[in-house]
Amino acid sequence: MNFPKSLSALALLCCSVVAHGAEAPSAGLDQDLQNLKKDVLDINRDLFVLQEDLLFPANTQVAVFVSMDVGLFFALDSVKLSIDGVELAHYLYTEREAEALLKGGVQRLYVGNLKVGKHELVAVFNGKGTHERDYRRGTTLEIDKGIGAQFVELKISDLQRKQQPEFVTRIWE
Amino acid sequence: MRRFLAFAIALLLSGGSALAAAEKPKPGTLREGRQIRDLHYGDVLFHFYQDDFFNAIVGFTAARQMGRAEPHAADGELLLGGMLLSYGQHQQASQIFQALLDSGAKQEIRDRAWFFLSRVSFDRGSVDRAQDSIGRITGKLPGRLEDERRLLEAQVLMGQQRYAEAAAQLADWKGGEDWAGYARFNEGVALVRAERIDEGLKVLEIAGTTGGSSEEDRAIRDRANLALGFAAVQSERHEAARAAFRRVRLEGPWSNQALLGLGWAESAMGHYREALVPWMVLQDRDLLDPSVQESMLAIPYAMMGLKAYGQAAQRYEKAIASFGTESANLDRSIQRIRSGAMLDELFRNDIPNSLGGNWQIDQLPATDETRYLVRLMSTRGFQEGLKNYRDLRFVRANLQRWSRDLGTFTDMLATRKLRYEEHLPAVRQTMERNAIDLALERRAVLVSRLSKVEQARDPIGLASPKEAAQWAQLQQVSQRISQLAPGPQADALGDRARVLQGVLRWNLNHDYAVRLWQTRTELAHVDKALAETQVLRKSVVEAQSSEPSRLAGFGKRIDAQGPRVAALLERTDALLARQRQELQDIAAAELTLYKVRLAGYSSEAHFALAQVYDRAADKAPAP
Question: Between A65 and B37, where is the model more confident?
Answer without folding.
Answer: A65
